[in-house]
Amino acid sequence: MLFLMITENFPVSEDATINRVEEQLFSDQPEKLKILWANESSVISGPVNKLMYTAPLLTEAQHELTILLPDYDKAIHGPLGGAKVIETGYLPIRNFQLSILRPAISFSKMLSDGNFDVVHAATPMRGPFGLFFLGGSVIDMAYDHHLPIVAGAQSFNRFIARNMIPKLFLPGAPIIDSFVKRQENRMHGRADINYSPSIAMDEYILEREQVSKDTLVRLANGVDPMFNPERRYRPDAIKQRQAWGIKDDELVILVPGRLAAEKSLSKLKDIEDLPNSKIVLVGDGPERQNLEQLLPGAVITGMLRGEELADAYSNGDIMVLTSETESYSQVLFEGLAAGLPVVTPDKGAFIQLVEEGVNGLKYETAEQLKDVVTRLINNPKLRFSLGENGRQFAEGRNWEDETKRLIRIYRMAIYLNKHPSTPSKIAKKAIACLGLY
């Protein structure tokens, strides 16, 4: 095949290589795709952020997009580029959204009648006997109808599942882990293409024996250009900092993200009383009341969006993240883009994304967390250096490029679905030539 020779025999540019591979493999596909996108949860998170930024770019490119969400709030999720949005409903279980799609036979009919070119399930999961969970239900139905499937491996589902089970049952965690692994194996094993945002997530999903590393591709998130350090001197940003009650000699320890148990935010108690600093948590969630009691001196802003959120990042002096189960961390990149020195656990995606002493500092114990934050408070030169390096690390990441990448992933999934006998080494070579690793 031609694409096997492209990078070996011709000194062409990356764009030229991609164009030639696309011309060969995708010439029989429609120019404008009909896409069904199913998001497991409507709660603001990395996968939902991807949807919010990507949907308008897909529809702007005139692709026809239908979105399945447990719950749609235009004030929170935005207009989503005018895409057709279908609310599937959900049951609230311990602050999670347990979707109720599976009993609705009409959705299976929609897949058979909708003439969709590709089905995209973000962080799919599947419940007992196939009940509940939006992404897993959609994959099951798409698989039955022989539709191309793209599945996002973006969350460590076993940790999420543990948080859904009452503490009374936590001694059964190995049973929960085993169940989650079986269901992930089924869901991602049925996908034509799986994508992951980080090496940490690659390692997690490749533990499932039915997931092929040859068709596991990289898809990260972009960063909105509004996240930048220059905003700090805008009148609205100055007013925001004043509203937080920050004194002139105080530094803001910024902690952005959802206030949830899996974020391990109780660690912040160890740095609450550090001199010349104040903790500001930017976000909301089920742990808010507990954190208000645990951290009486902290500011909790609630959920901020758009310009207010960008101002909050610019008002930070040090960003601290505490979650040990991050598969990517959108807030990390927003903080880096805003020029903040970051402090993170040496776990999960942070192992890869944070380079010690270059764009951030890492810790393993509570004592180390206190030490590295104290070090940054007392060393403005180090704060500036890490912030500058972090800003450079985040530069160039944009939603337009990631959306183009996603479209290539869709088209590769369509190709593999049409040609199921394609040898794995051929698929791997084609994916590499498309720049999807």
Structure commentary:
- The protein is α/β, with parallel strands linked by helices and 437 residues long.
- The chain has 2 domains: 3-222 and 398-433, 3-Layer(aba) Sandwich (Rossmann fold); 229-394, 3-Layer(aba) Sandwich (Rossmann fold), CATH 3.40.50.
- It contains 18 helices and 15 strands.
- The protein has helices at 3-9, 14-26, 46-60, 74-77, 105-113, 134-144, 157-164, 173-190, 199-205, 235-243, 288-294, 306-314, 330-337, 350-353, 366-377, 380-394, 399-418, 424-433, and strands at residues 34-39, 64-69, 84-87, 90-93, 96-99, 118-122, 149-152, 193-196, 216-218, 251-256, 277-282, 299-300, 318-320, 342-345, 360-363.
- The strands form 3 sheets. Strands 3-2-1-6-7-8-9 form a 7-stranded parallel β-sheet, with helices on both faces. Strands 12-11-10-13-14-15 form a 6-stranded parallel β-sheet, sandwiched between helices.
- Strand 14, helix 14 (350-353) and strand 15 (360-363) form a beta-alpha-beta unit.
- It starts with a helix and ends with a helix.
Structural class: alpha/beta
Based on CA atoms alone, the radius of gyration comes out at: 22 Å
H/I helix tally = 18
Adjacency order of strands in the biggest sheet:
3-2-1-6-7-8-9
Give the CATH superfamily of the largest domain: Glycogen Phosphorylase B
Oligomer: single chain
Count the E strands: 15
Q: Main beta sheet, described?
A: 7 strands, parallel
